[in-house]
Amino acid sequence: MPGLWALVLLLIPQLVDRTQQTPLPAPPADLSPDKRGDIYMARKMYREAVDTYQQALKANPKSFALHNKLGIAFHQQMQLDVAQRHYERSVRLNRRYAEAVNNIGTVHYARGRYRAAVSQYRKALQITPNSASVHSNLGTAYFARKKYREASDHYLIALKLDPEIFEHRSTVGSLLQERSVQDRARFHYYMAKTYAAAGYIERAILYLRKALEEGLKDRDKIPEEAEFAALRDNAEFQELLAANIPAISR
């Protein structure tokens, strides 16, 4: 039985930690259901957010913003069918609501329907042409379709509109940003090229390192890329290319 006791002793600290965790207090009761739902979303308590947004919709069933928020709450739980229905309801209530149009695109993207995702993102850009998030999403959808030039073009536009667009991590809000890609090495490589073309040298080198760590092929072609012309005399860039960086297994 020594193996069993060793397992018990190993688990005891974890059980103690769980019992000591203090549950977060409920949002203030004097807030509207809409605001309480936003707090639950920020805490990633998506089921509670769904219940609260549904309560808010009973009082305001034609709120396109609430349908969109409810869609996001379902989306975060990967209930894509329900999420899409609420996004579409939001658009029917307000055809100029670009956030919901974009979010329908994210559902298509999650299902691997990249052509449909491109179509939705382009519709969203017709409404809000200066949205960095939508340009970023459109670039990612083009990337998934292996249309790398179009992807780069929209990534560069997104970066010019918001220099921090690719560093955002939160997906909570009214508009979802797509970050999932399959070919991560190539994706990071194109991000490095995008940053280099925009003059963000440090970030270009950072993403180039990520690409190499992901197992980027044809690394000998890197110095020939026009986007990296300004980096060729950069010592860190030269060291990175000279280093034998092994691919990180995942």
Report on the structure:
With 250 residues, the chain is an all-alpha fold. It has three domains: 32-94, Serine Threonine Protein Phosphatase 5, Tetratricopeptide repeat (Alpha Horseshoe), CATH 1.25.40.10; 98-164, Serine Threonine Protein Phosphatase 5, Tetratricopeptide repeat (Alpha Horseshoe); 185-242, no CATH class. Helix content is 64%, strand content 0%. It has twelve helices and no strands. It has helices at 2-20, 33-42, 46-59, 64-76, 80-93, 98-110, 114-127, 132-144, 148-161, 184-197, 201-213, 235-242. The two termini are 35 Å apart. 37% of the residues are buried. The model is unreliable at 1-13 (pLDDT under 50).
List keywords for this structure.
single chain; Serine Threonine Protein Phosphatase 5, Tetratricopeptide repeat; 3 domains
Give the arrangement of secondary structure elements.
Layout: H1 2-20, H2 33-42, H3 46-59, H4 64-76, H5 80-93, H6 98-110, H7 114-127, H8 132-144, H9 148-161, H10 184-197, H11 201-213, H12 235-242
Number of domains: 3
The CATH architecture category of the largest domain equals Alpha Horseshoe
Question: At the first level of CATH, what is the class of the largest domain?
Answer: Mainly Alpha
For the sheet with most strands, the description reads: none
- Please bin the fraction of helical residues: 55-70%
Unreliable residue runs: 1-13
Q: Would you list the SSEs in sequence order as H and E?
A: HHHHHHHHHHHH
What is the oligomeric state here? single chain
* Fraction in beta strands: under 5%
Number of helices: 12
